[in-house]
Amino acid sequence: MTPDAIRSFVQRYLSEHYGERTVMLLTSRVAQKSYGTEKRFLCPPPTTVLSGSWCIQLPSTSSSSNTASNSSTSMQPRLTIQISGESNQQSGTLEWSTPPPPVLPSAFISSEGFLHSSSTIGKCVSKQLHINDADEKRKRVQVLVNIQLANNENIGTFGSKGIKVISKPSKKRQSLKNIDLCIHHGTTISLFNRIRSQTVSTKYLGVSSQQSTSSSSSSSSSSSPSASTNNNTAASNCCFVARTNVWDPFVIWIVDPQRTQQSASPLDNNNNNNNGANAHHPPPPAMALHHTGKEQLAVHYNQPIVLQCLSTGLVSPVMSIRKVDKGSLALSGIMVMEPTLSSTTEALGDPVSQLHKVAFEIKSPPSPVSATNVSPSSSSPSHLYQQQHRNIFLACLNDVVGRHKCHNPPRRVASQLSSSTTAAAALRQQQQQQQQQQDKPALSSGRRRSSTAPSSSSALDQNDPLQGAVFEQDVSDAAVWTIVGTDCARFTFAVPTPTSTPTPSSPQDTFYMRPDIAPFPVVSSVSQGDTTLCLWGESFTTHLTVYVGDLALSTEFKSPEALVCVIPSTLLSSSSSSSPGAMASKKQPILLVRNDGVIYKTNHSWNK
């Protein structure tokens, strides 16, 4: 294509996202290896999501509208999926549906946001993928998806994020430095419920746009008004559900129960660095813990958290995440007084690890307790526990996700100390830690640091025999979930039409997608000098030109990992622009454009 034709297509793409197609590969961060003849299928199953008009219209010999309609439905792309290093391949079937409506206010919805831009999306869930033990040295694998159009043109093979291979979930206490095996604040997870460890009974937590009609005294929908921090009428049409065929990723946030929607605006949290400023994540809820450190913040047992649906923004009630042991026994920590806040708080447990079994206790609203008017009997751990807990857990009730009320109260762990001794020891340790925080900038890495949570000033030492587990409660299999971190590899591109003037009435029907879109160039970082712009990433070629908005930059190929561009004066000067309409905004997208007009979105921008 000529430079003028390419620029014309870039301008149309920027104005209306014309021809944009997106491939998303959703996978877990870790997966168990299969040994011998067994097959441990990846759970949650890898999912391929296509957004945009992928079904192409081929010439038909019949003029009948019914024939044309039947022809178009059979012209969707074909998928072939496999695990890297494996010879076995599977054919994938796409199921097209309308995504659930967003819960967030319209002010948060933008073309750069996390919402799907197309009216329909296609999902392919690969349930039969497993990792064999042929290669013992293999530590990581990828899910590879090859996409072929209905006219037999091969788009290419797309790879997921790396999946860590493990033999079984670790029962040891995880180090906070072991990023792969810890669940972190602001990252995405998947939750699934499995009755009596039967694979066929696996159900995944998700969000449905249809309000559940079932109701009972023992369970209520988790999509109550308190389930979402956003006041939007769309929230009443969304609810949490349990499905066997598909799953939804959720962002897990550590929250400060003392921080309410009225005390902070969600707009203030846009500067939160919890999830690496991921443009595809919804804005965090107002009570989400602010974390500006470079290192990720691990989630600990007994911490208050919320779950936020990645596709709708729906937020769960505030819940305490519990460790589950011996089938369905949920463990909880000791309750102590916070003298500075005049309220009670709970000691933290170990870091939450991948593929651990957990339970979610729905917290009651915090009730301040005066430290000067608490008698010795009322300050016992059992009494303080009953003050803050209602014994209500998030549970999988058939296809409905509701609230399960435990009729038997929590009991003390038999091996633990007496209530009075435990409370006194924890309170003394809390006071000692507060004194240490005044003398030292931070505790040693062997202790639970005060920056890990709002309630961490009462955290217990790792050598303490209690280790955060003081009470146990049978919550039943319905309230036991397996937690695992998830990843999403996203590829967004656009391909020009064979003619310079597509038919306005049906531009997608005349759209012609060129083959070999993959390997997809990925920009990991951008650095700027006085007169140069450097792009760092992978899969770069000599056929790529860097565009800032609709302005092409002089691009030099250095290596498959580096591109260097000359910054023109039109970008350096804020007073002049070669295209006033396109360059009026202070933030312009950085695109990679191939010499045949294929546009690759980079998710990076130029700020004037």
From TrEMBL:
Subcellular location: Nucleus
Disordered: annotated span: 208-231, 261-284, 407-464
RBP-J/Cbf11/Cbf12 DNA binding domain location: 22-180
Pfam families on file: BTD, LAG1-DNAbind, TIG_SUH
InterPro entries: Beta-trefoil_DNA-bd_dom (IPR015350), BTD_sf (IPR036358), CLS_fam (IPR040159), Ig-like_fold (IPR013783), Ig_E-set (IPR014756), p53-like_TF_DNA-bd_sf (IPR008967), RBP-J/Cbf11/Cbf12_DNA-bd (IPR015351), RBP-J/Cbf11_DNA-bd_sf (IPR037095)
GO cellular component, one term: nucleus
Tree of life domain: Eukaryota
PANTHER family: RECOMBINING BINDING PROTEIN SUPPRESSOR OF HAIRLESS
Name of this protein: Beta-trefoil DNA-binding domain-containing protein
